[in-house]
Specification:
By secondary structure, the protein is an alpha+beta fold. It has four domains: 3-178, Beta-Lactamase (2-Layer Sandwich), CATH 3.30.450; 192-293, PAS domain (Beta-Lactamase, 2-Layer Sandwich), CATH 3.30.450.20; 309-380; 390-546, Heat Shock Protein 90 (2-Layer Sandwich). The chain contains 15 helices and 18 strands. The protein has helices at 3-19, 26-41, 85-94, 110-118, 152-180, 182-191, 210-216, 220-225, 228-236, 242-253, 295-346, 353-380, 395-409, 434-447, 508-517; strands at 45-51, 57-65, 79-80, 97-99, 123-131, 134-143, 195-200, 205-208, 259-264, 270-280, 283-293, 391-394, 415-420, 427-430, 454-465, 468-477, 521-528, 531-543. It has a six-stranded antiparallel beta sheet with strand order 3-2-1-6-5-4.
Length: 546
């Protein structure tokens, strides 16, 4: 989920939560929330169905429709409960109803299938409304114009709205009853899941429920004093940012505004806080605070975000290996085809048998490389893998192999490729794709070079950055060079695509991705400072193996 989508999602959730706080006009709150929910989920219709007292009928009490979508509210009144018996069974199993394709519903769900087809519904998502532990209705998303797979945020929006609406209806019913019976008020005050405290204008606690005491772990001797300052001091000791909390509280006491906030504890707990003024005869006489423990919910959201990041990274790796596979296999087939054509030309002359044998060897090598490539890409492109497997790789061995292949692939050219072997036992943390990296760099050094001979000097050194040690490999060629403005763009995907690449090159954009997956870096410099025309120096840094 993008940052913008995440912010819009949180705005919808915050809006739903804030609208249902305090004494509300339920119709206005539901209608305004439905519009936000519909836009956020891209649903064509958002509907609320409530059951009658005896659970014999249900009716569509509230509805929002996107532009161009016909309303069904007037039609869906006093509908027999038997139609949605399949819904009820689904909710009892998995707590919600999720239908991606209405047309695929089984015969056991035939009544609800017909019910939806009459409304032209293609995809459907519903969560129950619970009041006093009993299902009293459903809140639903419907898609009319197409079939869709509902996203995780859609589930969260519906679930939170359903819970909030159920809680609100229950709360409003309780408030009505509490106004008639003070004893019932006290019982409900203690029974609520939120911690509640009420303070008058002089800082005396007028009401305090057991849930508040439990949530804030207030000692009995402090509770007995009924002094909010004493309670507040104990509360502040538990918070991550007590100064910020105290400043907000002080500012709020000067106003008659409602307030919503989230409070973070030193021990990792997270509370949702709501505050509103106590008003009598149009005058503020105090303030009520309620606190809800949302730690589990927030931690679940955080874990969901971490999971999304892990799978996004895994998907990007899979895309990388798909591109590697496509490029490499094309080049393998190209080399096999070229060798076969040369064999066809040479086979009529007996004096060319050594050359023919050499081309047969190239074909065999390419087939072996292809089999190995398929195995590696198949293993590394699995989305379930959280990390790419790296191992200790001998840099000299891989360089020697890539140089050997460069000579065979450019036999018509005069090559002079040398490694400066000043270091011994040079190993890096990499995998089989390191060969592709080296071959690609050498291929470009040969291809974009008009000199005879073509020279490439390879220097190897060790370097460090903080606590990390790296092997630095420099490929210095005498080619045509790269102008400064192109030194970064050559590593971007799609830049200067070449459909006739010889060798095993996978493209510089993929080379960069491979090196970055090793936690390394690659860049290009002028071989001769301030003169790009004297050739290039491709520099690769890879973490050293120990």
């Amino acid at each position: 989920m993008s940052l913008e989508s995440r912010l819009n999602f949180e705005k919808v959730i915050s809006g739903i939560s804030s609208r249902f706080v305090g004494r509300v006009n339920l119709d206005e709150v539901i209608n305004s929330s439905f519009e936000d929910m519909g836009i956020a989920s891209k649903a064509d219709r958002v509907s609320l169905f409530l059951f009658d007292e005896n659970h014999k009928y249900f009716r569509n009490t509230h509805e929002w429709c996107a532009d161009g979508i016909n309303s069904q509210q007037d039609i869906l009144q006093k509908v027999d409960m038997g139609i949605i018996s399949w819904w009820i069974a689904q909710v009892e199993k998995i707590s919600f109803v999720n239908i991606r394709d209405v047309s695929n519903l089984s015969n056991s769900a035939l009544p609800i299938k017909k019910f939806m087809e009459i409304q032209n519904i293609q995809s459907f998502l519903a969560f129950p409304i619970y009041i006093s532990g009993t299902i009293t209705g459903f809140v639903c998303f419907s898609k009319i114009t197409e079939q869709i797979q509902w996203k995780g945020k859609d589930f969260v929006i519906l679930r939170i709205f359903g819970q909030t609406l159920g809680d609100t209806i229950e709360r409003l019913n309780a408030v009505k009853a509490l106004e008639e019976n003070q004893e019932l008020l006290r019982a409900t005050f203690e029974a609520t899941a939120d911690g509640i405290i009420a303070i008058d204008n002089v800082g005396t606690i007028t009401h305090l429920n057991e849930r508040f005491i439990y949530m804030w772990r207030i000692p009995g001797n402090i509770v007995d004093q009924k002094d909010f300052n004493e309670v507040l001091n104990f509360m502040l000791k538990q918070l991550n940012n007590p100064d910020v909390f105290l400043l907000k509280l002080t500012d709020l006491e000067k106003t008659s505004n409602d307030a919503y906030d989230m409070i973070f504890f030193k021990d990792g707990r997270i509370f949702e806080q709501y505050s509103c003024p106590l008003v009598q005869d149009e005058e503020k006489v105090g303030r009520v605070w309620s606190f809800k423990d949302i730690t589990e919910h927030q931690h679940a959201e955080q874990e969901l975000r971490r999971s999304e990041n892990r799978y996004r990274e895994a998907y990007e790796r899979a895309e990388l290996f798909k591109d590697v596979f496509t490029h490499d296999m094309n080049n393998i087939f190209h080399n096999i085809k070229s060798s076969a054509e040369l064999i066809s030309i040479l086979r009529a002359k007996t004096e060319n048998q050594d050359k023919i044998e050499e081309f047969f060897q190239i074909i065999n090598n390419q087939i072996d490389r292809g089999v190995k490539l398929i195995k590696n890409v198949h293993k590394l492109s699995k989305l379930e893998e959280s990390e790419i497997t790296l191992r200790d790789v001998d840099v000299y061995k891989v360089l020697d192999e890539s140089i050997q292949f460069a000579y065979k692939s450019a036999q018509e050219k005069e090559l002079d490729i040398n490694i400066v072997r000043d270091l011994n036992n040079v190993f890096v943390r990499a995998n089989d794709f390191l060969l592709d990296v080296f071959e690609n760099i050498l291929h470009n050094a040969i291809k974009y070079n008009q000199n005879q001979p073509i020279k490439v000097k390879i220097n190897i050194s060790r370097t460090s950055n903080g606590n990390s040690n790296y092997v630095k490999i420099e490929f210095k060629d005498n080619g045509i060079g790269i102008i400064d403005r192109s030194k970064e763009s050559i590593f971007q995907k799609g830049n200067k695509k070449d459909n006739h690449v010889r060798g095993m090159g996978v493209g510089l954009s993929l080379v960069k991705k491979i090196i970055e997956n090793y936690n390394g870096k690659i860049w290009v410099e002028n071989r001769v400072e301030n003169d790009y025309s004297q050739g290039s120096n491709f520099v690769v840094e890879i973490p050293e193996a120990f």
